[in-house]
Amino acid sequence: MGSAKDLLTDEALTAFFFVTLPESLPIAVITRFINWFHEFGIPVGGVVVNGVIQKDQVGKDAAEFVRNRVQMQDEHMEEIWKIFDDRIRAIIPLFETEVKGAKMLNRTIGHLFAP
Question: How many C-beta atoms lie closer than 10 Å to residue 26's C-beta?
């Protein structure tokens, strides 16, 4: 157990990255987890925001539901930037399909490791 604790708390060897959606509950959950990790001395490498609707792909004729989701995500993104600011490592768009297979993994990687 001592070795595991040493490994988990060594910033040179370990960092945890949390993934959230731009929604209230996931933001609250990772905020709580990040605070717990800090209490235990476990390094947090950052936050990845997943499933962000790309505004440039939403036309004025989009369904009201979609326009409302974009507005909701905008509000939650403001909160995310306020809470996590320098810890945000990537923003992943909401893709047209789930991330499954090499092609979709490569698309995701392009957003995770973008300059």
Answer: 18
